[in-house]
Amino acid sequence: MMFALTVVIVKRNMKYKTKLRIPTDAYAYIEVEVEDEPSAIVSAYHEFTKLVKPQVGLPQKDFNKALDRYLTENTGDTDTYLAMSRSQQDVFQEVKKAFKRINKE
After folding, report:
1. Contact, 20 vs 32, CB < 8 A?
2. In what order do the strands lie in the sheet with 10-12?
3. What is the pTM assigned to this prediction?
4. Euclidean distance between the first and final Cα of the chain, in Å?
5. What phi and psi, each to the nearest 5 degrees, are found at residue 15?
6. Closest Cα partner for 3 from 20, 19, 22, 18?
7. What string of H, E and C letters represents the secondary structure of the chain?
8. What pLDDT, in 10s, does the model give residues 24-74?
9. pLDDT at position 4, please?
């Protein structure tokens, strides 16, 4: 998940009014309005992005093994799936859908 900073700046007595948009999912974000000095705005941005950081998930080697196992044996392990980060689960689901489409033909 990439974090984006959308800034709308209105200068008021050396303070800036800013809207921070922090993505939380594919089509969702949190919007926060901050009015402060630039350094405080950056601190607020970092504080909010920490709250929505993706979970760690499986190490790349284990994630690759899970994908390979699904592609070769058409099986998956629930515990392995639950240990994946949200982005890894999304990739895994897309691979499953593609695999089913290909084998349907």
Report:
1. yes
2. 10-12, 15-25, 28-36
3. 0.49
4. 33
5. -110, 150
6. 22
7. CCCCCCCCCEEECCEEEEEEEEEEECCEEEEEEEEECHHHHHHHHHHHHHHCCCCCCCCHHHHHHHHHHHHHHCCCCHHHHHHCCHHHHHHHHHHHHHHHHHHHC
8. 777 888 888 988 888 888 888 888 887 777 667 899 999 999 999 998 888
9. 56
